[in-house]
Design goal:
single chain, 54% helix, SH3 type barrels, 198 residues, alpha+beta
Length: 198
């Protein structure tokens, strides 16, 4: 049963990002097709098969080009700030954004490496990610070299706890951030390959 469950969960985790991506593309396609197909056919005088698909691809690429330049980034940040100030809408938007960020492992770029720490109490070990050295004042006040650690939660690693811990109490792991995130998301089901732990 454990093997069957592991295979099922692995398949589910593999399918989720694919299904979500395809569903979003189909939704955009249907919306674009319903808005632009009829007016365009009237203008050109004949029907073009796949016009909705072509327009969807153009819109996605156009948005990508716009979002990668300075003006586009500023515009998107403005929209995000506006949405984050609207009650209910901000909760929905942030939840969707966190889900997408998690699925595409965007957070891995913010973490330096994977570690093991005793948290929340002695004898209990948990996966964490080093984000930076702790602020100088913290190290001076404690008299110890400290590190800032992000402790992710299961199944949504974008939420979690921020802790500062003594450098000597941190156990470094030879597990990539992406692999560790998959381990957290799956609740320990998706184990790292042995070659990654050497």
């Amino acid at each position: 049963m454990k093997t069957i469950r592991k295979i099922f969960i692995t398949g589910l985790l593999a399918l989720i990002p694919i299904v979500v991506t395809i569903s979003v593309i189909i939704w955009i396609f249907n919306m674009v097709d319903s808005i632009f197909r009829v007016p365009l056919e009237k203008i050109i005088g004949f029907r073009i098969i796949g016009i909705g698909f072509i327009l969807t691809i153009i819109i996605i690429f156009g948005t990508g080009i716009f979002a990668t330049n300075y003006l586009g980034k500023e515009f998107i940040q403005l929209i995000e700030k506006t949405l984050s100030r609207i009650p209910l809408v901000n909760t929905l938007y942030l939840s969707i954004k966190q889900l997408i960020d998690t699925l595409f492992m965007k957070q891995r770029y913010a973490f330096k490496h994977t570690v093991l720490v005793e948290y929340p109490s002695k004898g209990i070990f948990t996966i964490g990610f080093v984000t930076a050295d702790a602020p100088k004042e913290i190290s001076e006040k404690t008299g110890e070299k400290m590190k800032s650690i992000f402790i992710p939660t299961t199944p949504n690693p974008t939420s979690g706890m921020f802790i500062m811990i003594r450098d000597k109490e941190i156990i470094s792991l030879n597990i990539s951030v992406e692999t560790a995130l998959k381990l957290v998301v799956s609740g320990g089901i998706l184990l790292p390959e042995q070659k990654q732990m050497k």
